[in-house]
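Extended Data, panel c. Modelled sequence:
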Amino acid sequence: MNLTEKIISAHLVSGKMKAGEEISIHIDQTLTQDSTGTMAYLQFESMGIDKVKTYKSVAYIDHNTLQSGFENADDHAYIQSVALKHGISVSKPGNGICHQVHLERFGVPGMTLLGSDSHTPTGGGIGMLAIGAGGLDVAVAMGGGALYLTMPQVVKVELRGSLRKNVSAKDVILEVLRRLTVKGGVGKVIEYCGEGVKSLSVPERATITNMGAELGATTSIFPSDNVTKAFLRAQGRESDYVPMRADPGARYSDEIVVDLNELVPLVACPHSPDAVKSVREAGKLKVDQVCIGSCTNSSYLDMMKVASILKGKRVHPEVSLTISPGSRQVLTMLAENGALADMISAGARVLECACGPCIGMGQSPKNNAVSVRTFNRNFYARSGTATASVYLASPETAAFTAINGYLTDPLDCPPIDDIKMPKQFLINDNLILNPADFSEVEVVRGPNIQPFPQHKALADTVSGEVLITLEDNITTDHIMPSNSKLLPYRSNIPYLSDYCLQPSDPTFAGRAKEKNGGFIVAGANYGQGSSREHAALVPLFLGIKAVIAVSFARIHRDNLINNGILPLEFTDASDYAKLSQGDELVIEDARAQVATGIVRVKNVTKDYTFETRMPLSDRLQKIMLAGGVLASLAD
């Protein structure tokens, strides 16, 4: 077996490990973050379960950390109290980004991890089968339920050789994205193998698995080896080490070879992580802003490389440089060894250990700016400035660019000093609260905590207008924008509903309310990006009955089903262009059609009928007919 099959086999609850078939697996660990966590815990509470059933569950507060009003602080208080009451550890604000901290303090090779964040596959860097999902799936897993998923194909990426000086692990995943695109990983696990793996540290591996989410992959994974063991030993967790690797001769659905020796510094151009060029090809663009950090590139190793480049230098006068260490562990170690002073002396603005600018939480660039970021996404307007052009690059490229004021190829710069992984990390977990230390906890609910919407059972006749037609690659950032103004209202679906699909059409929400809901029509890969369940909950609140698309991103399709919204795919993609905003659509005998997997939709306005497909297992059919997961559990 390959490594993915080994872990799935050890956790298999139901189904057969045949690609394309539905299986369910036991979940060992879960994580939530505060942008998605409030809804996950409201849903968990509604299940009436006293304590979580997992080996380890952690609630992180790392997204909504700017407290310009009471809303975020209220959410933090709710998350902390509800988590501790139900047996969940809490990582408080300032302790760091969930994926970085989980890698450092909780990740265990061979375990399964389910997280309400699309970049949960970061855990694959330490040999976990780590999968991102909607908050409701995580809530079910915390209650002891299995995770249902389609058995993925497993793609082997063989790494050969080793990276040259000034070439980064970020360049590895950008190369994979260049080859496979943002849709190339759908229904697949990307498994890294080969001699080149040994040359990569755990944080470097985690950079690669983190951005595997941009491929649309179920997850990505590296073997657990002596490098993993050394990392865990340095974290004081050597007892968690388990060797994990594929069997010799293991079979894969496809194989890719990446020669690390031949890689050059790469950059993803606006507005997609797969719009990849070499830095040299992109040219010496004048740059206004550089942001270093995020869950992709905020490790101790990344920060030390940046500090080495900045030491004794000056940030270009026309560039704003921000740096966000990924965890308090990293920040404290930088402060103790002098690297932080090197960054500050060069002119860097050091931000809190949080997601920050990556999710549009502050540091939006100026109008028409060029911003170079070490983040994982550069979707349109995600930075908070619609006119900005955001480029994704390695920490090395970003740091040299900050000094020069233009996009800089690190191969044209002096070689960076060798940065060694520490033999012992600084261990201080006093911002992690363990439920065993809190015997009596009262759940705190501020006025910003609002009930989540409930869908009714599927009707026999589903009708309404096409409220909007959308292009390919609509992201969850389009469907439910995530920025510093809206994030404080993640617990308030009625408030958020006014902003649904605002980047695509500011009039959409008003029209949806006026028409009492209807249909959304979209192109390929609808719902890519973040796992945020709000991109399904807000349309549910607005009365959206179905989304008809050429294809869906995995997590968003699951979220639509979980909340009772029909995710229909055109059987004939050419039918997509025939639909117009305002067309009246009707689905007759909807409940009976769901059971067949083929749903015929009549366009009353234009007097024709077209066919869509919605293949569902018996289990998913019951969920859809009931009106979502929670309704089906109540039945």
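The chain has a mean pLDDT of 95. This feature is highlighted in the accompanying rendering.
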